[in-house]
Design goal:
Elements lengths: L2 H24 L9 H13 L3 E8 L1 E2 L3 E3 L5 E2 L1 H12 L3 E8 L1 H10 L4 E6 L3 H4 L10 E10 L9 H7 L11 H12 L15 H10 L5 E4 H9 L12 E15 L4 H17 L1 H10 L10
């Protein structure tokens, strides 16, 4: 065989070998790694099943709403409602943190805490900083503190208005002012005398009522019980001279960080379920010895 013929045969063999190798590389392999998109989807799916910690701040001494009990545990009506909410939300784990009013408000706004409870009423100013859920969590009962000797004449807001309507002045920025305004609008022929005033000590209000300067003080029921009826109340000596009648309740809300809308929505669904099941009423009886929600005007 000539030298040139040998060269041509060698080139042909190399060409055929290269083509076979190329075909081998392009063949699919059952052991190849998964598509990157499929991997990302799997990670996202797994992460969605993770339990997210929710930091819940609450005040420490606002009995019976939010406080630390004798065992050093977070307790109170609002706290226990949120613990019940936590049980209905497996995607979250609530951690309760007792703290001050200021730290709670600043912490929820900054994101240090996801939720804060402190017996907070709705205000337009706070609505700019926090998410208010659709459903309130508790209620603050407000009513009239008056002279016990007038108990046969003052039984509710209407009878007080007929009696005299002379109410201890209220600061216009106070929620109590709005409530009395609403009453007066609904009862144009039987109004309470609404006078604007700056802040003053509660002792002044009690004194003015007992002296006859005014005939009633628009007071929060919890404050009246702590100030007058409790065994260690600072005005316990006035317990036989003063009386109280509830008028209505102001809803209180948990405050949510502005980035936690999904959490607030989940809270709303859980609260509605707890109401239907009777859990909220059960806790109200336990912590207030009554259904505080009966005084809320929807």
């Amino acid at each position: 065989m000539s030298f040139i013929r040998k060269i041509m045969i060698l080139v042909l063999v190399l060409t055929i070998s290269a083509g076979a190798a190329s075909c081998g590389k392009s063949a699919p392999s059952t052991g190849s790694p998964a598509d990157p998109a499929d991997t990302a989807s799997s990670v996202q799916k797994d992460s969605s099943n993770e339990v997210v910690e929710i930091r819940v701040a609450h005040t420490q001494t606002y009995v019976p709403y939010d406080f630390v009990n004798d065992n050093g545990e977070s307790d109170g009506f609002e706290v226990q409602v949120l613990k019940a909410v936590d049980e209905l939300l497996p995607q979250y784990r609530f951690t309760f943190v007792p703290t001050s009013d200021d730290d709670l408000l600043i912490g929820v706004e900054s994101g240090k805490y996801n939720i804060g409870v402190k017996g907070a009423w709705f205000t337009e100013e706070r609505a700019k900083k926090y998410i208010y859920p659709k459903n309130y969590i508790a209620a603050s009962i407000i009513g009239l503190t008056f002279r016990a000797e007038d108990s046969d004449k003052i039984r509710d807001m209407q009878s007080f208005a007929r009696f005299s309507g002379k109410l201890v002045p209220i600061a216009p920025q106070n929620a109590q002012w709005t409530i009395v305004e609403e009453y007066n609008k609904a009862n144009p022929d039987n109004q309470v005398i609404l006078v604007a005033s700056e802040a003053f000590n509660v002792s002044d209000a009690y004194t003015w009522v007992l002296e006859g300067r005014y005939d009633a003080y628009f007071d929060i029921k919890l404050s009246y019980e702590k100030n007058v009826l409790a065994d260690d109340a600072p005005y316990r000596h006035l317990a036989d001279k003063l009386a109280y009648v509830p008028y209505r309740a102001i809803p209180t809300y948990p405050l949510f960080n502005k980035n936690d809308q999904a959490l607030a929505d989940a809270y709303d669904k859980a609260i509605e379920q707890l109401r239907e099941e009777g859990k909220i009423s059960e806790l109200s009886q336990k912590y207030f010895n009554e259904d505080i929600f009966q005084y809320i005007s929807e």
